[in-house]
Specification:
globular, mainly alpha
């Protein structure tokens, strides 16, 4: 029953946004609605972790622990984005950037986009999974080009074209998986719940080719290099709360799709094939993003390239495959979603106040936006993996797993590139945060809803990292439930 509440509330909120003319009321109702969604997402994960089988309805909806985990990650970020949107959209209306009518369109698209991202992990049919991910692209494209500026419209078109080309590869991969299932003498089905138990009898050669198509197709949507080219433009031009959703959640829906097909591939052809491909693309993503982060000048593009880096870290964690590495990768999915949303909220406040993206032209943030500046100091260290923040713990789990598993070159490459990226981020943000305070713009007030969003995510980022260090006991069963390979 929880899953229908989780899927139904965003649709209800989308309808409400068409009725209420007071956009602040729409924003507050969104916050209340997504708080309820967050509560039921926690209940759903708890139920699936302690249940012997997945929760299934009519063979169309099927939720296991992996699905419930990604739904919870989505719920956390969507609630924070809804909270942040209240003050941000009101500020945009106040300075004439958008009209009241356009704010209503924003809330309608926000809720439809959120619903589509909740919908993806709940689907049992892998063909419908493809449809769900394509739906997230089509809805979010309007939010990328929301301001109707030349740059934002170009970014939206680039986003649609590149992701649509990628998704064609994913469709071909899905068809090949279906073909492998049908020629094995089994009844035709695209349900992952039907395919996983019989994966070992499927044609290995077809599975290998099919998974390459899946990895290229959904890897494009996930932002894995070298298929990442849409990501910096879309993230930098979208409305700030949507940038948080794109980076924090949308990329993870594509990772979820890769894992669903990956589990079938592992059981059909063995883990080594899956492992080599994931580690290769993970390392490429780190190398590409690291180089571009060093020379970046645009604030939001910098954070976008950081997303490519962290998606690479997640891919490496799943590619290593040991319980510690998989636990680290799953935690990194959560940690990156929370921390990157936190940082995009800060970037949104800066860009809104300074009216520019160029980091060289932004100085004295701590003086002009004291609360945002203080939060960004914490956020920079959290995002770059400094203790005691949560990303430090998940990255260390993956690095330790690489060393203990004998993948020394992977561990060494990770350490080197993470150190380079850490230094680059400190250099970029030091000038922005602590440079000479400009005469214009003057010191500004910051909306209460934005501060609450920062505090909500900041508490999770800090407390999760500290709590994980002290967790004891047997957690292996939980990893096996979440990623049952």
């Amino acid at each position: 029953m929880e899953i229908f509440i989780i899927l139904g509330i965003p649709l209800l909120l989308a309808g409400i946004s068409l009725v209420f003319k007071g956009r602040k009321i729409s924003g507050i109702l969104n916050c209340a609605g997504y708080l309820v969604v967050l509560f039921f997402s926690v209940c759903l994960l708890r139920q699936t972790l302690f249940s012997a089988s997945a929760i299934s309805f009519f063979g169309f909806i099927c939720v296991d622990s992996l699905s419930a985990f990604f739904i919870l990650v989505t719920a956390l970020v969507v609630f924070a984005a809804a909270l942040y949107s209240v003050g941000y959209i009101q500020k945009d209306i106040g300075r004439g950037a958008i009209s009241e009518r356009k704010a209503g369109i924003y809330y309608l698209l926000f809720n439809l986009f959120s619903c589509s991202m909740f919908f993806v992990p709940a689907l049992n049919n892998l063909g419908m999974l493809w449809v769900g991910i394509e739906m997230t692209t089509l809805i979010s494209a309007f939010l990328v080009g929301f301001y109707n500026k030349k740059e934002s419209v170009e970014a939206a078109w680039k986003y649609i074209i590149i992701c649509s080309v990628g998704i064609i590869f994913a469709l071909l991969g899905t068809i090949l998986f279906s073909y492998a299932f049908s020629i094995s003498g089994l009844s035709k089905s695209l349900n992952w719940s039907d395919m996983v138990p019989v994966a070992h009898i499927l044609d290995k050669n077809i599975l290998k080719i099919a998974f390459i198509f899946i990895l290229v197709g959904y890897g494009t949507k996930a932002g894995l290099a070298p298929m990442h080219t849409w990501l910096p433009d879309a993230h930098s031009q979208a409305v700030a709360p949507i940038s948080a959703l794109l980076s924090g959640v949308l990329l993870k829906t594509a990772i979820y799709a890769i894992l669903r097909f990956g589990i079938i591939t592992i059981r059909g052809v063995g883990f080594a094939y899956f492992s080599h491909l994931m580690i290769l693309l993970g390392i490429i993503s780190l190398v590409v993003s690291g180089g571009l982060i060093l020379v970046q000048k645009d604030l939001k593009r910098l954070l976008a390239y950081s997303s490519i880096e962290h998606i690479g870290v997640i891919a490496i964690g799943f590619g290593l495959g040991s319980p510690l590495a998989v636990a680290g990768a799953l935690l990194h999915v959560l940690n990156h979603a929370l921390t990157k949303s936190f940082m995009f909220f800060g970037a949104g406040n800066i860009v809104s106040h300074y009216r520019k993206h160029n980091m060289h032209a932004i100085r004295g943030v701590v003086g002009t936006l004291p609360f945002t500046g203080a939060m960004l100091i914490l956020g920079v260290f959290a995002l770059t993996g400094f203790p005691p923040f949560s990303i430090f713990v998940s990255e260390m789990m993956i690095i330790i797993a690489a060393f203990t598993g004998g993948a020394y070159w992977v561990a060494g490459t990770l350490l080197l590139l993470l150190a380079v990226i850490f230094a680059a981020f400190i250099n970029h943000f030091a000038g922005m945060l602590f440079g000479n305070i400009p005469k214009e713009p003057a010191k500004a007030g910051e909306p209460l809803s934005g501060k609450l969003a920062f505090l909500f995510l900041g508490t999770l980022i800090t407390s999760t990292g500290a709590a994980l260090v002290f967790i004891k006991g047997d957690w292996l069963w939980m990893v096996q439930k979440l990623f049952p390979r």
